[in-house]
């Protein structure tokens, strides 16, 4: 597992400068900077409506931006459509999993390799995914819509991995899942970063996200208001009161 | 009626061994017009039309069933194909091109029309897409209706008549064929020509469904955001669905013009689009077999009514209380309501394993 130092020495695989996104007349993201290196787990936390999901969708090219740069491996990719960004190695696991409910688990995984033609490589990666997600292998021929929430999330992650990404954008993988299942998912995320992929994680569960992340950004009203290592933010009193539900009375009294 | 009655029993009897099922279907498809002929020529005509509707339903199913794009103006492509044939193979402009030029041209024009419809509607989904496609279908019909001045192109509401029949290798399908003293009805000739088209279409669509393209459509239908996230060029794939779906409409339209010998805007009303959509909903959206069954059933229904409803009412009440056309709409609506309650996924659902209700196709 790469140490903090070896990671920070690399040039970032993903760099975002002054990113702005608007929906209609509403500026949802008001100019944010982010960096992500290979093998790094970085989380983006914040309240509902802070612009986290919008940021992730914009990075994946599903939502257009109206300002700033998105650099992937040093190249500007802000104008590329989503399918070309995926080809470069930027994969999104959308909020609410976004699996294809009418297809089987096997078919879902195969769609993940949609952009690839190297049959052998796909088969090898399929085996890797099975090793990482044994539950998925057990359910291969089941229609994905009939899986439990945790299993669906696993399928969504497995599907994204089959595009062989360098950067994985994960949108709230813990949503609506039981704590034990969430723990499993986070173990999987951890193994993914150990393989050298960069993971940018959007989470509501700030406590968990900060515990496992090397670094984190706190978003508020479309801006990044705080950033730092996971541990530093976990100890930050402002973060504790706003996102970890502690000392709320104290804050109100102050 | 021979064709429908054998497919009416619901899936229990469909669990027939595949080895028996396939030859049975082939035999039925080949023998149906002969049985119909014994009942009267008009029944063969009904079967011919049923096959044209099968082609239409297969094409619309590509767009609605596979790619999940609700198209309420599909009949416009049928119109484009029919008018292409009427323009290029009739005395109207004095052009008489052979079918192997006219039919592909009609298909190509329909595909272009499909792209013309698809391009501006790429970002629309569901209800909004349905409204725009509905408008598109009407625009085409209204154009056909009014393009008789200042320059007469379509001959307006009068339509175009004396259209050239389908002539394959010197064989004019509109004339009865004299073969070793046997008279083979023109209607039979058309039936087998249409059947060949339908078989070709089914083979093509089956292959398409299991291809990368088919999988991309299924992905878009289930979740467009996720489809983008796995690297599908959703714009391209939607345009392809519109274009390919329209192609089937165009071919069917061309054959219709040749078979009927006459086209007018009346044949391409909104009601026709809805009927074709009803066929695939009733049969089982996304499932080819279901779509074929749906198309045959709904073509046969009004004919059955025409034959039996009037005499029955005359016998019972001494007069016709309900016009067959009214009765047809009534029964169609009733059938749809019952279907939605009992078998929401159609007579032959796309996937029986799928237990969930569909989120989007309402």
From TrEMBL, chain A:
Keyword Transmembrane helix applies: no
Top-level taxon of the source organism = Bacteria
- A Pfam family that this protein carries is ABC_tran
Ranges of residues in domain ABC transporter: 14-246
Q: Which UniProt keywords apply?
A: Amino-acid transport, ATP-binding, Cell membrane, Membrane, Nucleotide-binding, Transport
Q: Which Gene3D superfamilies match?
A: P-loop containing nucleotide triphosphate hydrolases
Q: Name one GO molecular function term.
A: ATP binding
Q: Which family does it belong to?
A: Belongs to the ABC transporter superfamily.
Q: Could you identify this protein by its name? A: ATP-binding cassette domain-containing protein
Q: Which organism is it from?
A: Aromatoleum toluolicum
From TrEMBL, chain B:
Q: Which domain of life is it from?
A: Bacteria
Q: How does it sit in the membrane?
A: Multi-pass membrane protein
Q: Which residues cross the membrane?
A: 20-39, 51-77, 97-119, 126-144, 180-205, 239-262, 274-297, 328-350
Q: What keywords does the record list, in alphabetical order?
A: ATP-binding, Cell membrane, Membrane, Nucleotide-binding, Transmembrane, Transmembrane helix
Q: Which GO terms describe its molecular function?
A: ATP binding
Q: Which Pfam families match?
A: BPD_transp_2
Checking InterPro entries in the record gives:
ABC_transp_permease, LivM-like
The places in or outside the cell where this protein is found are: Cell membrane
Stated name of the protein:
ABC transporter ATP-binding protein
